[in-house]
Amino acid sequence: MAFKYSLGADELKGKTGTSLYKAIFAEFFGIFILNFFGCAACTHAKGDEVLIALAFGLSVFMAAMTIGHVSGCHINPAVTFGLLAAGKISLIRAIFYVLAQCVGSVAGTASLAVLTNGTEIAIGIGHTQLNPTVSVYQGLGFEFFLGFILILCVVGVCDENKPDSRFIAPLAIGLTVTLGHLGVVTYTGSSMNPARSFGTAFITGDWENHWVYWLGPIAGGIAASLLYSIFFSAPDIEVHRSDKYRQVTQNDDKEAAQIAKYPDLKYIDEE
């Protein structure tokens, strides 16, 4: 499998540039929604892991349905770096996406912090932290596999040679996020998204073990993207040459039969 990499300088100008800037804003908006509503669930979940899992999964589903056609709805540096490693996006687009994701995450978390300030309901702001019984390297391993399953799902449902799977892509990705939270939220907070954790770390000022939430998901995402591209990608969709010739022959036969049945049709066409 050949990988094509692009710097993407041409995306900064002209019609392509306009699309890039719309995509950057879409990434900002998408992760704003993710951090606002996902973390909002954390403020009153009181240990209800299912509630947290559904909130984050449904937020991703909603964002994908809304902005997927604009930016691809990465809203996650692990997704962006995974697709960059597979040559699916340009380097410049990847850089701008990650910046937009981090800023949008901070904005979403800050908005939530302002609205919940002083309320008796809110407990925390959904900041991801390692469970005291989990070591740094165990946490890194959990986050690696969280990023791995998420990006494996993303590249699988977005495979250009599997057009039918794109109809369920937003739901599949949202459910994968839900799965990750159901399985691992007790151990690491189930980030699987460096920008999501960046937003809460920035607002709370708690940067302890923050690197785990970047290295783990991104490494897992790159591994999943390359694994799928090399071993699991669907074969190219192409019509066999004999099928093309057969189609042409069939069309010619139909036209000949029609002319024989309606001889005046040929005369009208020639005029």
Automatic annotation (TrEMBL):
Aminoacyl-tRNA synthetase among keywords: no
Domain of life: Eukaryota
Residues passing through the membrane, by range: 20-38, 50-70, 91-115, 135-155, 167-187, 211-234
Subcellular location: Cell membrane
PROSITE patterns per record: MIP
Protein topology in the membrane: Multi-pass membrane protein
Keywords assigned by UniProt, alphabetized: Cell membrane, Membrane, Transmembrane, Transmembrane helix, Transport
Xref: Gene3D superfamilies: Glycerol uptake facilitator protein (1.20.1080.10)
Keyword Kinase appears in the UniProt entry: no
A single GO molecular function term of this UniProt record: channel activity
One CC-aspect GO term: plasma membrane
Cited NCBIfam families: MIP
Annotated family: Belongs to the MIP/aquaporin (TC 1.A.8) family.
Name of this protein: Aquaporin
Organism, as annotated: Polypedilum vanderplanki
